[in-house]
Structure formats: structure tokens, C-alpha cells
Amino acid sequence: MYKYAIVRDIPDSFAQCVTSFVSTNPIDVALARHQHQLYCNTLERLGLKLIRIEADNTLPDCCFVEDTAIVLDELAIISNLGLASRVSEIKAMEIALIPYKNLKHIIPPGTLEGGDVLRIDKQVYIGISARTNEDGINQVKEILHSLEYTVHPIKIKGTLHLKSVVTYLGNNTIILAEGHLEDSVFSTYEKIITPMNEAYCANCLLINEKVLVPKGYPASKSLIEEKGFELIELDMSEFEKADGALTCKSILF
Ligand code: CIR
Fold first, then answer.
1. For residue 248, which atom of ligand 1 is closest to its CA?
2. What DSSP element (H or E) covers 73?
3. Is ligand 1 within 6 A of the CB of residue 19?
4. Is the CB of 17 within 6 Å of ligand 1?
5. Measured from the CB, is residue 66 less than 6 Å from ligand 1?
6. Which residue CA neighbors atom 3 of ligand 1 most closely?
7. Is residue 204 among the annotated active site residues?
8. Which domains, ranges and CATH numbers included, belong to the chain?
């Protein structure tokens, strides 16, 4: 069961974040703040105590805290983000985690972003992406070796992070967007495959037996419900425009 969620407020500069999203409809920062508040309220309603980090207007992507650390029961690993404009985001995360965890660090030339890290019990799947390199993954392996975690590097294609296309729902079941991973990966799990036009719904957030899903993906929602999961829908429109999804906006432990 998770007890804490680290979240970070939305900076005034959020509309200048890095994104591959092409749209004539720019990010509405006020709406993003409203959606983020509902997200935070939902985490609290699910029993989590929020650890809230202030926004930094010089870091437009700073609300995507997931990328800045991997937090496990035994320790936390502070990332070295793969995008220069985001590297300083780790400072506030270190300060937030110091009271709770022993900290380790990924150091250059290794890079790692938490969005590439999917942990399921003692299995740690890490996407090799434009943001996370093999050196970074090897450093995680070293750090976790004595703690009996198994690290699995995974080649991904056509997506920002591993967790943009696959997340864990509980009950040995993953949700996955087709076409970004080799078929043999995750063969031991039950799979829910999102329809092609609903790939964004492959990022869901499991919190204490409830599954948060982005609003507006009805086919995926039905598939998840058919498997018996309890869902909570949240509007993520302004974060989707920023290439961000549900897991990106918190670190749970
Ligand atoms: C970025 O490109 O770095 C941000 N705009 C989005 C990061 C999303 N984070 C995540 O998937 N864990």
C-alpha cells in the first residue's frame, strides 16, 4: 500500500514545456492547474499524504516529477534526466526525499528518466529510450543487485518513455499500446491492449487497488472494467498536450 505521493505544482511557464504534440490548441495553464488539483484531490481521497513541491517557473516541465527519481521501499535513485532543460528538476526532489529515503544517484554519462521505469514487485523493466541510456540502466542494476531486484532493459520505439505505452494494473495484468515493444516482452502477464486510436490510455495509475485512467478513452475503459478493475477517470487534456500522462505527475511510496 502506498502512503505518500510527491507532486509538484504547475509553473506559469508550463505552456513552454517540451512536447512532440502538434496542435492548434495550445496548453491552457489555468485548466492544467485545475486538472492537477483534481488529480491531487483524488490521490488524497485514496488515502495518500501529499508531499507538495512548489513550482519553478524556470523549469516548464517540473510537474512531471516521476522522471526525477525511482523510489523503492529500500532507497531512492535520483535520476540524471536525458533532456538538458530538465536536469535541474532533481534538486527539489532530492530535498523532498531526504527525510524518507537513503539516496543514490545516476551519474553521467548515464541518463535515466523515471517514465522509463516500470516496477512490478521485484521486477524492474527499464525502457532504452531517447532519455534513458544503457549506462544509466547498468547503474540501476548495480544499485539494486544486492536488494534482489531483477532489472530488464527493454528496447522501445516510437514513444517518449516505456510507461507511455505500458503500465501495470495489478492482478498480474498490464495495459499496453500496440506496436512499441517486441511481442516477447511481458509474456508472463495478462494483457489489455488499447485500440490504436487510444494509445494514450496505456498509461494508467494503480493506487491502492483503484486504477486511475485518462478520461475520453471509452473502448479501453470497457476492456479494463471487463477485467474487474475499479476505475476513476480524470481529465488529462492539458497534460496530453505536454506528452505527459497520469503516472508522470506523482511519485508514490
Ligand atoms: C518531457 O518531454 O520531458 C515532458 N514534456 C513530458 C514528460 C512526461 N513524463 C513521463 O512520461 N514520465
1. 12
2. none
3. yes
4. yes
5. yes
6. 18
7. no
8. 4-252 (3.75.10.10)
Q: Which three cell numbers stand for residue 121?
A: 514487485
* CA atoms of 165 and 135, how far apart (whole Å): 22
Place of cell 500496440: 178
Beta strands in the chain (DSSP E): 4-8, 49-53, 69-71, 76-78, 103-105, 117-120, 123-128, 150-155, 166-170, 173-177, 190-194, 205-207, 210-214, 230-234, 251-252
CA-CA distance, 197 to 33, in Å (whole number)?
A: 26
Give 78-112 pLDDT, tens digit per residue: 999 999 999 999 999 999 999 999 999 999 999 99
For residue 24, the model assigns a pLDDT of 77
Q: Report the predicted TM-score, pTM, of the whole model to 2 decimal places.
A: 0.97
Q: Given 40, 161, 180, 201, which residue is catalytic?
A: 161
Q: Is 64 in the pocket of ligand 1 (CB under 6 A)?
A: yes
Residue 190's alpha-carbon distances to 118, 174, 185, 201, in angstroms, are: 16, 6, 12, 17
Q: Which pLDDT tens digit goes with each residue over 38-61? A: 999 999 999 999 999 999 999 999
218-241 pLDDT, tens digit per residue, is 999 999 999 999 999 999 999 999
| Of residues 158, 159, 177, 157, the one with CA closest to residue 167 | 177
